[in-house]
Amino acid sequence: MSKEITSRADDYAQWYIDLVRKAGLADYAAVKGCMVIKPYGFAIWEHMRDQLDRMFKDTGHVNAYFPLLIPKSFLSKEAQHVEGFAKECAVVTHYRLKNAEDGSGVVVDPDAKLEEELIIRPTSETIIWNTYRDWIQSHRDLPLLINQWANVVRWEMRTRLFLRTTEFLWQEGHTAHATREEAVAETLTMLDIYARFAEEWMALPVVRGLKTVNERFAGAEDTYTIEALMQDGKALQSGTSHFLGQNFAKAFDVKFATKENTVEFVWATSWGVSTRLMGALVMAHSDDEGLIIPPKLAPTQVVIVPIPKPLPELTEVANTIAADLKARGIRVKIDNDDQNRPGFKFAEYEKLGMPVRIGLGARDLANGTVEVARRDTKEKSSIPLDGLGAHIEQLLVDIQANMFERARAYRDEHITPANTWTEFVEILDGKGGFVSAHWDGTTETELAIKDETKATIRCIPIDNPQEVGVCIKSGKPSTQRVLFARAY
RNA sequence: CGGGGCGUAGCGCAGCCCGGUUAGCGCGUCUGGUUUGGGACCAGAAGGUCGCGAGUUCGAAUCCCGCCGCCCCGACCA
């Protein structure tokens, strides 16, 4: 077992894992690499999920659910797709257990071997497109805009809570369109929704961009990404939106009759974000005291702590404040615990990242004030009871904005141009973050850079300015800078 | 699968090199009391197949051999 890491500076990755555990977000359980999301972690995820779901529905999408198990043969229908996922699939081979002859427990019944093995979905393109074939006949059936909330399994070699687990929760949207243009537009619309969600709800600034051929989703023509920067200078791919062209339509023979009475293959997109976003939230905002949850996602936005404990006269005032806040749509909780001391509670709520804490004691009441502490800056101030509700309402807005601004300032400071190879390596090893550098556009060079520095091309930013230059590595001509970084 | 490290109370660890009373410490838990505006204090209590197996020895947490498990780094990846 490893020692506890208490500061971000010591070992960021380990500190992150300890924090996720200590704050009660999640832990590993039973099967190696599999994660249990605990109630507090799940409450935050639910806020994220609900908001994303609203944004999907506002753009015309509907939810459905497809099976967990996929016939093995489906996976081999799209050549690139198999290649991308074959190495990490969990396979179901039998459907029955029986008691062992020697009474040692249950064993797999060899007589119950499946004709065709089943794959536990690593992603659902194949089973969904196999289904879409029956759903789509005419241009009148298009566009088909479906999302599903599901779990998937990818048998990764190494895992890390939220960032990469064997099983994870996500949403995957799968759409079918009559034209290339419409599908490309959908791909970008969804990328934009992800970026807006990250920035407006998670207070997480992201770079929108296009993946290189090498980093592209298996089976896609184009993969777009939102890339976020963590506090240790490493990048995190936080969501992807794929333009699939007609690849899956061809693999699964999904055609439609056009208005012109011809028959065409449909155009496809898929897009997803996962519980990895929870990891991004933690790694982008936390400090040594614990989590800092943006108000829009905090399960409890304001906690009222009677000091030293819930005495009747304090509880009465607390109830009045809580009623006012609730009426304003604020998620508020009164701490009625009379066992722990205030200092303990303060530390505890800071660890959980609750945006605002209201301290309420005799001393305050005598002055007609309360103590308001904000988690993001740890500032405390004395606020009059009169007008408190409006003040808190505004404070939550301010905290949300401040968290985003702070993260954006950090991100912006950590996009560094490099013009020579020496500079490039120095930045990666020193301040970290994104390095903006010229690249000759070849996979060969990209891989050579990755080999030597562990940095990958995170993306070619959308609307990237074109400029003449030479590749940082090969010295060959280049037309634009791309963003490199070491990534999770 | 390669390179490191670690398995001792619910959690975090010391003890091991150099074998020797009844295996310790901190946190947590339970009881009682005093406290209560930034992680309270005092007193007492419960809690252990020292990862498993075999060996050396009068005697093994400690030494030897084998096995198992976990963590970290690398290859894979949302």
Give a short synopsis of this structure.
The protein is α+β, with helices and mostly antiparallel strands and 488 residues long. The protein has helices at 12-22, 39-58, 72-75, 79-85, 125-135, 180-201, 247-251, 276-285, 312-327, 342-352, 362-367, 388-413, 421-429, 443-453, and strands at 26-28, 35-37, 62-63, 69-71, 91-94, 97-99, 106-108, 113-120, 144-153, 167-177, 206-210, 222-229, 235-245, 255-257, 263-265, 267-274, 302-307, 332-334, 356-361, 369-374, 380-384, 415-417, 434-438, 456-461, 466-470, 477-485.
Low-confidence stretches: none
Radius of gyration: 26 Å
Binned, the helix content reads 25-40%
- Structural class, by secondary structure, is alpha+beta
Distance between the termini: 23 Å
* Largest sheet composition: 12 strands, mixed
Number of helices: 14
Task: Count every beta strand, where a strand is a DSSP E run of 2 or more residues.
Answer: 26
Mean pLDDT: 94
Shape: globular
